[in-house]
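Suppose a colleague, Dr. K., hands you the sequence of a protein chain of 125 amino acids and asks what its three-dimensional shape might be. Before reaching for any lab equipment, you can write down a predicted structure in token form. Begin with the sequence itself:
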Amino acid sequence: MPIHLDISHLDRLVIAVVLGEVTPDDIAGVVREFRTTGLNHYGKIIDTSAGSSPIDENRLAAIAAFMRADPNAASRGPLAFVVDPKRGAQAVKFAEITAGERPVKVFNNLREARKWVRENTKIQR
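The predicted structure, expressed as tokens, is then:
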């Protein structure tokens, strides 16, 4: 799978690293996994700096709608994208589409993304 997940339950953090080209089905599979494993409230960092995807704006909107349809959508944790500054248009567009639903931001380095996610993650009891 071109998306590698690293889950830290202690930190309530999921880091997804995209390697190579991913398909819309790959992305949908990861979103389904977040929903079915109860990781929605965890902070998430999606590092796309070493990957690419042929996803267009309509598919991005469909993924956002799928995420919104989750009964626990209101409890989604912050989402940070780490992108190559030359190829981050899809992450920026997804952040725009989902702005206001939860904290979401695009970064050019992992350190800043980690700091921001940590600051925006709410502890669920």
